[in-house]
Amino acid sequence: xxxxxxxxxxxxxxxxxxxxxxxxxxxxxxxxxxxxxxxxxxxxxxxxxxxxxxxxxxxxxxxxxxxxxxxxxxxxxxxxxxxxxxxxxxxxxxxxxxxxxxxxxxxxxxxxxxxxxxxxxxxxxxxxxxxxxxxxxxxxxxxxxxxxxxxxxxxxxxxxxxxxxxxxxxxxxxxxxxxxxxxxxxxxxxxxxxxxxxxxxxxxxxxxxxxxxxxxxxxxxxxxxxxxxxxxxxxxxxxxxxxxxxxxxxxxxxxxxxxxxxxxxxxxxxxxxxxxxxxxxxxxxxxxxxxxxxxxxxxxxxxxxxxxxxxxxxxxxxxxxxxxxxxxxxxxxxxxxxxxxxxxxxxxxxxxxxxxxxxxxxxxxxxxxxxxxxxxxxxxxxxxxxxxxxxxxxxxxxxxxxxxxxxxxxxxxxxxxxxxxxxxxxxxxxxxxxxxxxxxxxxxxxxxxxxxxxxxxxxxxxxxxxxxxxxxxxxxxxxxxxxxxxxxxxxxxxxxxxxxxxxxxxxxxxxxxxxxxxxxxxxxxxxxxxxxxxxxxxxxxxxxxxxxxxxxxxxxxxxxxxxxxxxxxxxxxxxxxxxxxxxxxxxxxxxxxxxxxxxxxxxxxxxxxxxxxxxxxxxxxxxxxxxxxxxxxxxxxxxxxxxxxxxxxxxxxxxxxxxxxxxxxxxxxxxxxxxxxxxxxxxxxxxxxxxxxxxxxxxxxxxxxxxxxxxxxxxxxxxxxxxxxxxxxxxxxxxxxxxxxxxxxxxxxxxxxxxxxxxxxxxxxxxxxxxxxxxxxxxxxxxxxxxxxxxxxxxxxxxxxxxxxxxxxxxxxxxxxxxxxxxxxxxxxxxxxxxxxxxxxxxxxxxxxxxxxxxxxxx
Length: 859
What we know:
alpha/beta
């Protein structure tokens, strides 16, 4: 073998164009259309063939063209404007500085398995990644001091193509990291900055790449380096590739390696946010570092770090959670137990191995919940589903009190709004639509946009979508070896003036891509009406190991091949961010048909809504809280079925009815100037009401105010004064655990009432035996509310009881006045919970004692 000595070739930019490099390596260009147009203007064809990758563009462009641009006054003026725009953006005083600038030091680390920043950085598969990237972009806009952490995949997610019979095939082309808009982090000697992790087979090394996202750095770990053996180099080979053993390696690298990477970079976050449970092992490394630095026990370090961890679940079903065999956990983390000074059983319990519901598996969501004091779902409905799903972790709590909150997802408005629509918004809404997208007063100005301008703008986007679809379909056909006649027919598919429906998402069974085909003859009549034509564009991938999803794609493609449908329905292969952009920016109706309540949130409909499309969706995820009858249409009324065949029949009928009786007539009802006035009224209403609510600026601010800020303040308190408060908290918790079962509610008394008028109140007293604890260690509450037919309190309210006096060595009398706020049959119960100023929630320890004495019979 011969020795290869490496060197990197970089673009040779004329001095006048040198700032192009700075613009290329800050992904602010992904949401700034003027900077994107600057790169496109260099060489439009090369910009497209490079996958809109400015790093490749600058490295591949003809030198003579660069020299010509360096003398082009118009281009140099554009470059100067773009450079000034980035500098102005980075220097602008931000929301964080204005509202919370006094909270220093402050740093948040955001962990995610995938990020969908742009098509040219293919380390994403779907909605989780897009949400993560939009989170970083809005954190940058708001000026929140946040760092992203992820993995840099050599092959990323797969590329999709279809076989002759419509079966999904996958390819895994390599990413060339040196031709991506990312930079390698270097140490003081100019060498790649490295971290290492002890795996059973030996040390695994990773280098760190940085993608700069506006103000926010995203650090990506890469094991494909010579310091590792072939197996370890493959850890960052594919996103969601390989088996469960590869998954645990990736999750150890993301979590433990991610914290070590931040340490190596000199970043010590007060708050760590887990976007799903993939990165939950990071909580171990946070605890270990505190133990090492301050001589803490694991219990002390756990309490110090737990309040600074945030866990967001996107999964509404247990089957979607990562689970590992405990023996695999022991193999990969057994030595870690020793460094944490905990037993195998203690570690297994953190992952719920002891619970019957986990089937003796180590559950990453349960582990994340146990390592975090802040947990949330991603929509109002998903919050309810998550509380029900994890209720067994808090068996004595009413379901609605399970300490899992919700923050509804959003989208980064400026990224997903078309350039045409953005120009319209700039003209009539002013720049505040993207500078302050959560401001409702800004979006009310949508009503000022003339109908003619809004409709022409939307029609241009539909025309571009149809042109793009035809071009993409021709490429698919040529690649698959189709005949010249078939390729030629692709130039005539779809009608740029017809009502266009979009459906694009992961092809999982519960998303029901085939629901609209339940009655093919009826659908064919709907699509084929010459006076009111309708067309549908589909896109999406199935997971490589999901044969059910692949079968759905195959069935869909074979339906489309019918002669009467082939010109009216198209399936676009290899769904990516570029296809998604064309679709959400160009369709008239966005169709969403999940099986409620399986869609945790969904964001594609939000993106379509920002561009004026109207949603036609099941009442699931975000649409459950967004829907109003002037914003779009709803399939069903939020029913949940046990008979799926009946559900599909009913809801497919609803789709056909809505299309025939409401959607199509509304779209084709044209007034003066051939404008669909009522349709435009709904478009404006949709943009006005969805825009300010379903964006990541609102979402990230809620994360900051609900979780980040309280968690950071708790972190500072617990880690100050040589960790004294963390030690005291851990000691207090140990005392509570040891003595809780000795607490007793000895007697409960209330005024003897059978009926009481609304607006009045009555007194309740409770005699509490606080054995082994002090009154300050507990809170005594009245839990009261309306009774359902089963004599269960519905959505009960809580009233703190006041300590009146001590009545013996261990007995204490509490009282409260219970208000009567509504009519009907009501009830109350007394309970005791832990109380400490450092608890994020009184429910987080899972301890609760209820009054279980029987009510005395009246004499």
